[in-house]
Design goal:
It contains twelve helices and no strands. By secondary structure, it is an all-alpha fold. The chain has one domain. The longest helix has 31 residues. The protein starts with a helix and ends with a helix.
């Protein structure tokens, strides 16, 4: 009985703000679960595959050709929402955009959309949602504190080029450690360009491979695979460069 009393005395009472944040967290998680269940019930998961892109290629590309502005804005809106709500599947969306728009336009649309979505999380962390988002991140966010306090811009650029941590966590951490919005936007936009264009080019390569009847791969697809390979090596290379600089210091 005394032990229970001691534990209760050590516990901090929950404030109204804590209770409200907890309620908001549960509501947000419930909303995500409901969205996933609804999407699955409607069969939307059947369209999130390379086979679905191939099967619907002609209709998709005809729609894009006839409604370029609408298609581009719709894609950007979907991507921004996906990033802002930390939904998975961003890589597939980027591949699908390369498949539909071509690698150059797709890469540009995706980079702008991803930066906007990331900035929404950044700004949300500066509001009352900051505590809620920080609790979601847990102890992992403390691993980033030293880098952001030493050189926030270059450290964020490094994290974007070499995505060691989850994308949503990198979106959140700079705001919690006092980074300004302008440098955040610039480092984010520059840092995601290599991977974004690599995935977009891969998507265009899939489309070109379909055009070449009887051929499993196309030159564009091979280049896209090579670009993805190079992008996957970036984390290793940048880690070694960062370690060598620390050793020199």
């Amino acid at each position: 009985m005394q032990a229970e009393t001691a534990v209760r005395d050590d516990m901090e009472p929950m404030t109204m703000a804590d209770a409200q944040n907890e309620s908001e967290a549960q509501s947000k998680n419930s909303l995500k679960r409901s969205a996933f269940v609804t999407a699955y019930a409607l069969g939307l998961h059947e369209y999130i595959s390379l086979q679905a892109l191939s099967d619907n290629r002609e209709a998709l590309q005809n729609f894009v050709a006839e409604n370029m502005l609408l298609a581009a804005l719709t894609y950007m809106a979907i991507y921004i929402v996906a990033v802002a709500l930390s939904f998975p599947g961003a890589s597939f969306l980027t591949i699908a955009s390369g498949f539909s728009f071509g690698w150059l336009l797709a890469g540009a649309l995706t980079a702008v959309s991803a930066t906007i979505g990331a900035s929404i999380i950044f700004l949300a962390a500066r509001t009352a949602f900051g505590d809620l988002l920080q609790r979601k991140a847990g102890n992992r966010i403390q691993k980033l504190s030293e880098g952001f306090r030493e050189d926030s811009f270059n450290y964020l650029l490094f994290l974007r080029l070499a995505p060691i941590f989850p994308f949503w966590l990198i979106n959140l951490a700079p705001a919690l450690f006092g980074m300004r919005l302008g440098p955040y936007v610039l480092a984010t936009f520059i840092g995601i360009l290599p991977g974004t264009f690599a995935y977009a080019y891969f998507g265009q390569g899939i489309s070109s491979a379909i055009d070449m009847e009887g051929s499993v791969v196309s030159p564009e697809l091979l280049i896209g695979l090579g670009a993805l390979g190079l992008a996957s090596l970036l984390p290793v290379v940048l880690k070694r460069i960062r370690r060598s600089r620390r050793g020199a210091d």
